From TrEMBL:
The lineage of its organism: Bacteria, Bacillati, Bacillota, Clostridia, Eubacteriales. GO terms for molecular function: purine nucleobase transmembrane transporter activity. Coiled coil: none annotated. Belongs to the nucleobase:cation symporter-2 (NCS2) (TC 2.A.40) family. Azg-like subfamily. The keyword Membrane applies. It holds the Pfam family Xan_ur_permease. This is NCS2 family permease.
Length: 430
């Protein structure tokens, strides 16, 4: 392992990497429950989707760990699964087979784009200060995700956001978890995020928030109802073009944003500000999406919760391999992992949010042509509830402000091109 993953060179060890991998899994284990729930609305068998979700996560995350040797985990992405079920199937009226076909085509296109370095060029086209801002924006976004899922932050109709009822045991457990995890971090306890979630889970049992399962072991459901279920007669329709463009855009910039943001936090950028092994990482995403479509699930992407493992010290592919191993166990121990609720993971995600905003001190706030685009990138991720839209606002404002402030020469041709793509996105999708 030392030779393959270069643990000492990355200032880590097997224990640290495994703990980081388990931590990443625990913060994203909800996808095993949520993804089948969402896709069942599209008429898919939830049991089959559960198995497909776990298997596609295992394949994609193993590729990320063994091939790209990066500490990022992959699974069917939130937002992408909602678009699959609620927009393509329920709103547009197509079958889930049509949607799976779109996901398959998306994965194949991504393989080609990655092969010819198009996605890598897109990553390189993002200005340096916006790359730093992406990490900060993800920090705020991931904290919001944790608080919202646990009910600490809610939309109450009268306001956009409001505080939930702190007398509720679920919310109270989340706040206790944040406090416990914060104390562990402050005392520099190794594996603080992981231990925080374990302690929070134990406390939640007598509080009535966490239920002990009736059984621990379960047999993975069959994927026969979703395996290779494609529909080819509509692939040349205009609707397929729109669906495909939307999936491509959402996945591309969510994945790019996560890779850049988390890698920045982990100091995994090279001297030119590029993510190490970015092409291999993007291949993992593309192959994961393609395999996922064949198994019967929506688009696979790099999970922002990977930041929790990085915060625990994960620096190599062994972290990802450990996460994949946990997904393997989850196939057979689903009831046990069902105890890891949003009330438990909120503590880790909020503290990770703090870790992610460290890079704000590295952003040039004196040059407003740099500071304003960076600021818009940061705030629009949580406000628009989208990593991709945060990047879009950052890049487009960067182009506009630089162009009309006498600094048009600082805008590279790739940045102009990506700006046009963002404008097309807003015209076609919004």
């Amino acid at each position: 392992m030392e030779r393959f993953f270069k643990l000492k060179e990355n200032n880590t060890n097997v224990r640290q990497e495994v703990v980081a991998g388990i931590t990443t899994f625990m913060t994203m284990a909800y996808i095993l429950i949520v993804n089948p729930t969402i896709l069942s609305a599209a008429g898919m068998d939830s049991g089959a989707v559960f198995t497909a979700t776990a298997l596609s996560s295992i394949v994609a995350t193993l590729i990320m760990g063994i091939y790209a040797k990066l500490p990022f985990a992959q699974a069917p992405g939130m937002g992408l699964n909602a678009f699959f079920a609620y927009t393509v199937v329920l709103q547009m009226g197509y079958s889930f087979e049509f949607a799976l076909t779109a996901v398959l085509l998306e994965g194949l296109i991504f393989i080609l784009l990655t092969l010819f370095n198009v996605r890598e060029a897109i990553v390189d086209s993002i200005p340096v200060n916006i790359k730093k801002a992406i990490s900060i924006g993800i920090g705020l976004f991931i904290a919001l995700l944790g608080l919202e899922a646990a009910g600490v932050v809610i939309g109450d109709g009268a306001t956009i956001l409001a505080l939930g009822d702190v007398r509720n045991n679920t919310i109270l457990l989340s706040l206790i978890g944040i406090l416990i995890t914060g104390i562990l971090v402050a005392r520099k306890v190794k594996g603080a995020l992981f231990l925080g979630m374990i302690i929070t889970t134990i406390i939640g049992i007598p509080m009535g928030v966490i239920e002990l399962p009736n059984s621990i072991v379960s047999i993975p459901p069959s994927i026969s109802s979703t395996f290779m279920k494609f529909e080819w007669h509509n692939i040349f329709s205009f609707d397929m073009v729109i669906v495909l463009f939307t999936l491509l855009f959402m996945d591309m910039f969510d994945t790019i944003g996560t890779l850049v943001g988390v890698a920045t936090k982990a100091n995994m950028l090279d001297e030119n500000g590029r993510v190490k092994n970015i092409k291999k990482a993007l291949f993992a995403d593309a192959i994961g999406t393609t395999v996922g479509a064949c198994l019967g699930t929506s688009t696979v992407s790099t999970f922002v919760e990977s930041a929790s493992g990085v915060a625990e010290g994960g620096r190599t592919g062994l972290t990802a391999v450990s996460t994949a191993g946990m997904f393997c166990l989850a196939l057979f121990f689903a009831p046990l992992f069902g105890m890891v609720t949003p009330a438990v993971t909120a503590s880790a995600l909020v503290i990770v949010g703090l870790f992610m905003i460290e890079n704000i001190k590295d952003i040039n706030l004196e040059d407003y042509t740099e500071a304003i685009p960076a600021f818009l990138t940061i705030i629009m991720m949580p406000f628009a509830y989208s990593i991709a839209d945060g990047i879009a606002f950052g890049v487009l404002s960067y182009i506009g402000i630089k162009a009309f402030s006498g600094k048009i020469k600082e805008i590279t041709i790739p940045t102009w091109i990506i700006g046009v793509v963002f404008i097309l996105k807003f015209i076609l999708i919004h």
